[in-house]
Amino acid sequence: MTVHLPPVPGYAALAGALASAGLGVTDVVHVTEYVTAATKNDLDAARSFALRGHRVPVSRVPIEAVVGSTTPYVLGVTAHPSDGIVYLPSVHTTEGDFRDQYRWCLARLRELAGDATLVRTIDYTATATRADYPRCGRPRRDVLGSVHPAAAGILVDVPVAPGARVALDAVAASGPLRVLNPGWARYDTLTYKPAVQAGKHVFLSGFGALDPVTQEALHDGNLPAQAEHIYVSIETVLAEAGASGEHVTSLVEYVTPAAVEAYPRTKALREKHFPNAAVVSVVCSALLRPSFLLESVPTAVLP
Predict the structure, then answer these.
(1) How far apart are CA 20 and CA 17, in angstroms?
(2) C-alpha to C-alpha distance for 106 and 110, rounded to whole angstroms
(3) CA-to-CA distance for 180 and 236, rounded, in angstroms?
(4) Distance in angstroms (rounded) separating the CA atoms of residues 227 and 269
(5) What pLDDT, in 10s, does the model give residues 107-160?
(6) Contact, 73 vs 39, CB < 8 A?
(7) 149-171 in b/e burial notation, b at 16+ Cβ within 10 A?
(8) Nearest to 227 by CA among 204, 251, 243, 250
Protein backbone atom coordinates (compact mmCIF):
# COMPACT_ATOMS: atom_id res chain seq x y z
CA MET A 1 0.00 0.00 0.00
CA THR A 2 1.25 3.50 -0.84
CA VAL A 3 2.67 5.41 2.13
CA HIS A 4 3.04 9.19 2.30
CA LEU A 5 5.41 10.27 5.06
CA PRO A 6 4.79 13.39 7.13
CA PRO A 7 7.04 16.22 5.88
CA VAL A 8 10.70 15.35 6.36
CA PRO A 9 12.90 18.33 7.38
CA GLY A 10 15.81 17.54 5.08
CA TYR A 11 17.75 14.54 3.82
CA ALA A 12 19.61 14.18 7.13
CA ALA A 13 16.28 13.23 8.73
CA LEU A 14 15.15 10.84 5.99
CA ALA A 15 16.54 7.59 7.41
CA GLY A 16 14.91 8.22 10.78
CA ALA A 17 11.57 9.16 9.22
CA LEU A 18 11.57 5.99 7.13
CA ALA A 19 12.56 3.83 10.10
CA SER A 20 9.72 5.30 12.18
CA ALA A 21 7.30 4.13 9.49
CA GLY A 22 8.88 0.69 9.31
CA LEU A 23 10.40 1.47 5.91
CA GLY A 24 13.81 1.58 4.31
CA VAL A 25 15.43 3.63 1.59
CA THR A 26 14.61 1.05 -1.09
CA ASP A 27 10.88 1.53 -0.35
CA VAL A 28 10.99 5.16 -1.59
CA VAL A 29 9.35 5.66 -5.01
CA HIS A 30 9.25 9.48 -5.26
CA VAL A 31 10.64 12.54 -3.49
CA THR A 32 9.46 16.14 -3.78
CA GLU A 33 11.95 18.77 -2.62
CA TYR A 34 10.18 21.95 -1.51
CA VAL A 35 13.12 24.33 -1.58
CA THR A 36 13.46 27.95 -0.41
CA ALA A 37 15.91 30.51 -1.75
CA ALA A 38 17.82 30.10 1.53
CA THR A 39 18.98 26.70 0.34
CA LYS A 40 22.40 27.65 -0.91
CA ASN A 41 24.01 24.23 -1.18
CA ASP A 42 23.31 21.80 -3.97
CA LEU A 43 21.05 19.04 -2.69
CA ASP A 44 22.44 16.45 -5.08
CA ALA A 45 25.16 15.27 -2.71
CA ALA A 46 22.81 15.16 0.29
CA ARG A 47 20.22 13.26 -1.74
CA SER A 48 22.74 10.77 -3.05
CA PHE A 49 24.12 10.12 0.44
CA ALA A 50 20.67 9.73 2.01
CA LEU A 51 19.31 7.44 -0.71
CA ARG A 52 22.54 5.40 -0.82
CA GLY A 53 22.45 4.91 -4.55
CA HIS A 54 18.72 4.12 -4.71
CA ARG A 55 17.46 5.99 -7.78
CA VAL A 56 14.00 7.60 -7.60
CA PRO A 57 12.19 10.34 -9.52
CA VAL A 58 12.68 13.73 -7.83
CA SER A 59 10.56 16.86 -8.14
CA ARG A 60 12.03 20.26 -7.23
CA VAL A 61 9.50 22.92 -6.17
CA PRO A 62 10.72 26.46 -5.32
CA ILE A 63 8.76 27.94 -2.40
CA GLU A 64 8.81 31.07 -0.26
CA ALA A 65 8.96 29.19 3.05
CA VAL A 66 7.86 26.11 4.95
CA VAL A 67 4.84 27.02 7.08
CA GLY A 68 5.75 27.20 10.76
CA SER A 69 9.41 26.35 10.23
CA THR A 70 12.73 28.00 9.45
CA THR A 71 14.09 24.91 7.72
CA PRO A 72 15.40 25.81 4.24
CA TYR A 73 13.66 22.87 2.62
CA VAL A 74 11.32 19.99 3.35
CA LEU A 75 10.74 16.67 1.65
CA GLY A 76 7.51 15.04 0.59
CA VAL A 77 8.23 11.31 0.43
CA THR A 78 6.13 8.59 -1.20
CA ALA A 79 7.01 4.98 -0.45
CA HIS A 80 6.00 1.53 -1.69
CA PRO A 81 5.47 0.89 -5.39
CA SER A 82 1.86 0.58 -6.50
CA ASP A 83 0.70 -1.40 -9.51
CA GLY A 84 0.05 0.86 -12.46
CA ILE A 85 1.20 4.13 -10.83
CA VAL A 86 4.15 5.88 -12.49
CA TYR A 87 5.85 8.60 -10.46
CA LEU A 88 7.63 11.16 -12.63
CA PRO A 89 10.31 13.79 -11.98
CA SER A 90 9.49 17.46 -12.48
CA VAL A 91 10.56 18.92 -15.82
CA HIS A 92 11.39 22.36 -17.21
CA THR A 93 13.14 24.03 -20.11
CA THR A 94 14.57 27.50 -20.70
CA GLU A 95 13.89 27.61 -24.43
CA GLY A 96 11.00 29.55 -25.99
CA ASP A 97 8.15 31.64 -24.63
CA PHE A 98 5.62 30.61 -21.98
CA ARG A 99 3.43 28.51 -24.28
CA ASP A 100 6.43 26.87 -25.97
CA GLN A 101 7.87 25.90 -22.61
CA TYR A 102 4.53 24.62 -21.35
CA ARG A 103 4.10 22.47 -24.47
CA TRP A 104 7.63 21.09 -24.16
CA CYS A 105 7.07 20.16 -20.50
CA LEU A 106 3.82 18.34 -21.24
CA ALA A 107 5.37 16.47 -24.15
CA ARG A 108 8.37 15.49 -22.03
CA LEU A 109 6.12 14.16 -19.26
CA ARG A 110 4.11 12.17 -21.80
CA GLU A 111 7.38 10.72 -23.08
CA LEU A 112 8.56 9.80 -19.57
CA ALA A 113 5.19 8.20 -18.77
CA GLY A 114 5.54 5.71 -21.62
CA ASP A 115 2.33 3.76 -22.09
CA ALA A 116 0.80 5.24 -18.93
CA THR A 117 -1.59 8.22 -18.93
CA LEU A 118 -1.02 11.44 -17.00
CA VAL A 119 -3.53 11.53 -14.15
CA ARG A 120 -2.39 14.74 -12.44
CA THR A 121 -0.26 17.70 -13.41
CA ILE A 122 0.91 20.54 -11.18
CA ASP A 123 2.41 23.55 -12.88
CA TYR A 124 4.55 26.18 -11.20
CA THR A 125 4.70 29.59 -12.89
CA ALA A 126 5.68 33.12 -11.85
CA THR A 127 3.18 35.78 -10.82
CA ALA A 128 4.34 37.82 -13.82
CA THR A 129 3.04 35.09 -16.16
CA ARG A 130 -0.51 35.22 -14.75
CA ALA A 131 -1.78 37.07 -17.85
CA ASP A 132 -0.16 34.44 -20.09
CA TYR A 133 -1.55 31.52 -18.12
CA PRO A 134 -4.67 30.99 -20.29
CA ARG A 135 -2.27 30.26 -23.16
CA CYS A 136 -1.50 26.85 -21.60
CA GLY A 137 -4.97 25.64 -22.68
CA ARG A 138 -3.96 24.98 -26.30
CA PRO A 139 -0.86 22.91 -25.45
CA ARG A 140 -2.91 20.88 -22.98
CA ARG A 141 -5.57 20.15 -25.62
CA ASP A 142 -2.95 19.25 -28.21
CA VAL A 143 -0.70 17.09 -26.04
CA LEU A 144 -3.01 15.47 -23.51
CA GLY A 145 -5.52 14.09 -26.00
CA SER A 146 -8.97 12.98 -24.88
CA VAL A 147 -8.07 12.05 -21.29
CA HIS A 148 -7.64 15.16 -19.17
CA PRO A 149 -5.92 14.74 -15.80
CA ALA A 150 -6.51 16.43 -12.48
CA ALA A 151 -4.42 19.60 -12.23
CA ALA A 152 -3.21 22.45 -10.06
CA GLY A 153 -1.53 25.76 -10.87
CA ILE A 154 0.73 27.45 -8.32
CA LEU A 155 2.57 30.76 -8.60
CA VAL A 156 6.21 30.81 -7.50
CA ASP A 157 8.39 33.84 -8.19
CA VAL A 158 11.76 32.09 -7.86
CA PRO A 159 12.14 29.91 -10.98
CA VAL A 160 13.49 26.40 -10.71
CA ALA A 161 16.19 27.59 -13.15
CA PRO A 162 17.02 30.99 -14.72
CA GLY A 163 14.87 31.42 -17.82
CA ALA A 164 12.37 28.68 -16.92
CA ARG A 165 8.90 30.23 -17.14
CA VAL A 166 7.16 27.06 -16.01
CA ALA A 167 8.01 23.77 -14.32
CA LEU A 168 5.65 20.80 -14.41
CA ASP A 169 5.22 17.90 -12.02
CA ALA A 170 3.03 14.89 -12.82
CA VAL A 171 1.87 11.41 -11.92
CA ALA A 172 0.79 8.84 -14.50
CA ALA A 173 -1.11 5.57 -14.32
CA SER A 174 -1.83 2.59 -16.52
CA GLY A 175 -4.95 0.48 -16.58
CA PRO A 176 -8.58 1.63 -16.48
CA LEU A 177 -9.09 5.25 -15.42
CA ARG A 178 -12.23 6.90 -14.14
CA VAL A 179 -12.95 10.62 -14.07
CA LEU A 180 -14.66 11.78 -10.88
CA ASN A 181 -16.99 14.77 -11.24
CA PRO A 182 -20.02 15.52 -9.04
CA GLY A 183 -21.76 17.11 -12.03
CA TRP A 184 -19.87 20.40 -12.12
CA ALA A 185 -20.41 21.62 -15.69
CA ARG A 186 -17.45 24.05 -15.64
CA TYR A 187 -15.12 21.10 -16.24
CA ASP A 188 -16.81 20.30 -19.56
CA THR A 189 -14.77 23.02 -21.27
CA LEU A 190 -11.57 22.82 -19.22
CA THR A 191 -8.43 20.77 -19.87
CA TYR A 192 -8.47 19.17 -16.43
CA LYS A 193 -10.93 17.30 -14.21
CA PRO A 194 -11.75 17.39 -10.49
CA ALA A 195 -10.15 13.96 -9.97
CA VAL A 196 -9.00 10.83 -11.75
CA GLN A 197 -9.27 7.40 -10.15
CA ALA A 198 -6.69 4.77 -11.08
CA GLY A 199 -7.43 1.53 -9.29
CA LYS A 200 -7.46 2.30 -5.58
CA HIS A 201 -5.71 5.64 -6.04
CA VAL A 202 -7.55 8.93 -6.48
CA PHE A 203 -5.53 11.89 -7.74
CA LEU A 204 -7.42 15.13 -7.18
CA SER A 205 -6.95 18.61 -8.59
CA GLY A 206 -5.93 21.60 -6.55
CA PHE A 207 -8.94 23.10 -4.77
CA GLY A 208 -9.45 26.76 -3.90
CA ALA A 209 -12.50 28.55 -2.51
CA LEU A 210 -14.38 28.65 -5.81
CA ASP A 211 -18.10 28.17 -6.41
CA PRO A 212 -18.14 25.30 -8.96
CA VAL A 213 -21.38 26.56 -10.53
CA THR A 214 -20.89 30.35 -10.74
CA GLN A 215 -17.06 30.14 -10.81
CA GLU A 216 -16.95 33.02 -8.35
CA ALA A 217 -14.22 33.18 -5.70
CA LEU A 218 -15.64 32.92 -2.19
CA HIS A 219 -14.86 34.22 1.31
CA ASP A 220 -12.41 36.95 0.34
CA GLY A 221 -9.93 37.50 3.18
CA ASN A 222 -11.38 34.75 5.40
CA LEU A 223 -8.95 31.82 5.49
CA PRO A 224 -10.93 29.46 7.79
CA ALA A 225 -14.03 29.92 5.63
CA GLN A 226 -12.00 29.27 2.48
CA ALA A 227 -10.49 26.15 4.05
CA GLU A 228 -13.89 24.79 5.07
CA HIS A 229 -15.22 25.30 1.53
CA ILE A 230 -12.15 23.61 0.06
CA TYR A 231 -12.35 20.60 2.37
CA VAL A 232 -16.06 20.07 1.75
CA SER A 233 -15.45 20.30 -2.01
CA ILE A 234 -12.75 17.64 -1.79
CA GLU A 235 -15.06 15.30 0.10
CA THR A 236 -17.83 15.97 -2.43
CA VAL A 237 -15.55 14.72 -5.21
CA LEU A 238 -14.33 11.74 -3.19
CA ALA A 239 -17.92 10.67 -2.60
CA GLU A 240 -18.12 9.89 -6.33
CA ALA A 241 -15.70 7.02 -5.62
CA GLY A 242 -17.52 5.96 -2.45
CA ALA A 243 -14.76 7.54 -0.40
CA SER A 244 -14.42 10.28 2.20
CA GLY A 245 -11.79 12.50 3.73
CA GLU A 246 -10.64 9.56 5.84
CA HIS A 247 -9.14 8.05 2.70
CA VAL A 248 -6.92 11.07 1.98
CA THR A 249 -3.35 9.96 2.59
CA SER A 250 -1.52 13.06 1.37
CA LEU A 251 -2.48 16.72 1.40
CA VAL A 252 -0.17 19.40 0.03
CA GLU A 253 -1.31 22.90 1.00
CA TYR A 254 -0.03 26.00 -0.78
CA VAL A 255 -0.50 29.00 1.51
CA THR A 256 -0.12 32.59 0.30
CA PRO A 257 2.04 35.00 2.34
CA ALA A 258 -1.09 36.88 3.40
CA ALA A 259 -2.54 33.70 4.93
CA VAL A 260 0.45 32.47 6.94
CA GLU A 261 -0.55 34.18 10.20
CA ALA A 262 -4.09 32.75 10.13
CA TYR A 263 -3.09 29.30 8.89
CA PRO A 264 -2.89 27.66 12.37
CA ARG A 265 -6.63 28.38 12.73
CA THR A 266 -7.32 25.80 10.00
CA LYS A 267 -5.62 22.91 11.82
CA ALA A 268 -8.72 21.57 13.60
CA LEU A 269 -10.77 21.76 10.39
CA ARG A 270 -8.11 19.86 8.48
CA GLU A 271 -7.83 17.15 11.10
CA LYS A 272 -11.61 16.77 11.19
CA HIS A 273 -11.90 16.27 7.45
CA PHE A 274 -8.63 14.42 6.79
CA PRO A 275 -7.57 12.60 9.97
CA ASN A 276 -5.17 10.23 8.18
CA ALA A 277 -3.42 12.63 5.82
CA ALA A 278 0.27 13.45 5.81
CA VAL A 279 0.14 17.23 5.42
CA VAL A 280 2.86 19.31 3.75
CA SER A 281 2.23 23.05 4.16
CA VAL A 282 4.37 25.49 2.17
CA VAL A 283 4.22 29.18 1.31
CA CYS A 284 3.84 30.00 -2.39
CA SER A 285 4.18 33.45 -3.95
CA ALA A 286 0.49 33.69 -4.92
CA LEU A 287 -2.36 31.71 -6.43
CA LEU A 288 -4.06 32.08 -9.81
CA ARG A 289 -7.12 33.76 -8.30
CA PRO A 290 -5.82 36.83 -6.42
CA SER A 291 -8.35 36.38 -3.62
CA PHE A 292 -7.35 32.76 -2.95
CA LEU A 293 -5.44 32.33 0.29
CA LEU A 294 -5.08 28.56 0.10
CA GLU A 295 -4.98 25.79 -2.48
CA SER A 296 -5.06 22.16 -1.38
CA VAL A 297 -3.94 19.19 -3.48
CA PRO A 298 -5.07 15.83 -2.05
CA THR A 299 -4.32 12.21 -2.88
CA ALA A 300 -6.52 9.42 -1.61
CA VAL A 301 -6.09 5.65 -1.42
CA LEU A 302 -9.20 3.49 -1.20
CA PRO A 303 -9.26 0.36 1.01
Answers:
(1) 5
(2) 6
(3) 10
(4) 8
(5) 999 999 999 999 999 999 999 999 999 999 999 999 998 889 999 999 999 899
(6) yes
(7) bbbbbbbbeebbeeebbbbbbbb
(8) 251
